[in-house]
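Fill-in record for AbrB family transcriptional regulator.
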Amino acid sequence: MRMAASLLVLGALTAVVAFALDLAGLSSATLFAALLVGLAVALARPGKVTFPRGSFVSAQALLGVTLGAYLEPDALQAVGGEWLPVALVSAGTLVASMLVGLVLERRTELDRPTAQLGMIAGGASGIVGMSDELGADDRLVAFMQYLRVLVTVLLTPLLAAAWGGGDGGGGPSEAILASPTDWLVTAAVAPTAALAARRLGVPAGTLMGPMVVAGALTLAGVDFVVPPVVRELAFALIGLQVGLRFTTDTVRQMGRLLGPVLVGVFVLLIACFGLAVVLHLLTGISLRDAFLATTPGGIYAVLAVAFSSGGNITFIIAVQSLRVIVSVVLAPLAVRRLARRGRPAA
């Protein structure tokens, strides 16, 4: 009974903090809020609050379905004529992230999987959700990912204001209420695809299996979304469980890493701006919209800026969404391949 009461209090605190962060325009507000609440509880009452292992696995599977639903036919149509530049930019972002991660590994105490996953631009919630399965420290990965998101969210409106108007274009519609079909598809795909992927030995299969199946259904014309309440619950469970694993030593380590990670984030921002210039030159889209399409993090903040400034919403969300998919799909393969080579000599 006491544990149930503690979990209810954690849920209420997470909802309040998430609401405040959402008003401030921070992307993935629920996961970030849960991470902060879990961290505070872990430091104030170490080891007193825990979650069943099954809740984390379930949250990963639900997160996979959520990410898979990004792969909509409209998004592919929006970049259909420009698929090669978009593919090059998406791959370039992943390569730049991995290179920054390798440098960070050499210059800090981070192990290779943690450094790599912490610096991957795109799909912060998905990366955090799979990091423990890939042998990384998910606490430090979460710290690095959300530091990148925070810096990007703060800088994007300022940098976007330096350019003029966009190309125009309407934004995608978003379902507000979930239908019975949404509940049924989510309930069917999440457990079955996660179990199948784990049995097949797919890297980060708990997340990847549902993501691939949900993406295939979406491309096949099955119109569904993960019910918002379920999606936010999954974000909260992942954030809380990662946050609750923090210790005083981990917080001290984060303090030591703050400077190097910030440098890495700014290097990544510069690299993504270079990719935006490439996208602008190859497609003719405005430099401002190319910048918004390639910004390394904070997709919801990017879309808010694009909406308010008349940007090409369809193109921006298509490139951002496809980059999320590319990052989350290829990250496990790339990280495991690099991890096998071991830590390079200093």
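KEY FINDING: The chain has one domain: 2-340.
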